[in-house]
Specification:
Number of helices: 4
Structural class: alpha+beta
Strand order of the largest sheet: 1-2-6-3
Distance between the termini: 26 Å
Order of helices and strands: EEHEEHHEEH
Helix content: 40-55%
Largest sheet: 4 strands, antiparallel
Shape: elongated
Number of strands: 6
Strand content: 15-25%
Number of domains: 2
């Protein structure tokens, strides 16, 4: 069955089986740039991961801001006139961290409240195919079939 990408040499219902087949081809030094795995019958699946609440949004923003504040505090110069260097250093780190946490929290809450497609859940989208075809160019079909059958490739 000819296709734009090449000819189908194997069809699988699971992606991992197509990957195993391709790995077998590549182990026998089959040219990897000539192999394609094509998914047919695609559908989009969205997996819900959890709820999004204002408190989670605020906590996420605070944690990001805290990290940014820590980095800013680490690169800021610390005055060395005070004999208690540890206290001065901790104080110099605490201020940008607290400011960063506050700004990050406010920014995230504002961004979430202004979002047009606001949802109360977080999710991950993926595409899943009904079947997966392994395709190679027409001039390599016989070589691919020999390799997949476990035969030694013929020398050119």
């Amino acid at each position: 069955m000819p296709h734009a990408q090449g000819e189908v040499i194997a069809t699988f219902s699971e992606y991992r089986d197509a990957v195993v087949y391709v790995e077998k081809l590549m182990t026998a030094d089959f040219p990897p740039g000539s192999i394609a795995i094509v998914g047919n019958g695609l559908r989009s699946v969205e997996r819900v991961r959890g709820r999004i609440s204002n408190s989670k949004v605020a906590l996420s923003g605070a944690s990001t801001g805290l990290t940014i504040g820590l980095l800013i505090g680490l690169i800021s110069p610390v005055p060395s006139t005070n004999p208690d260097l540890v206290a001065v250093t901790l104080s110099a780190l605490a201020q940008p961290m607290l400011i960063g946490a506050g700004v990050g929290m406010l920014f995230n809450i504002l961004r979430f409240s202004l979002a047009k497609n606001k949802r109360s859940f977080a999710s991950v989208s993926m595409s899943i195919a009904k079947e997966y075809e392994v395709q190679v160019p027409s001039n390599l079909v016989e070589q691919a079939k020999r390799v997949a059958a476990g035969e030694e490739p013929k020398s050119s």
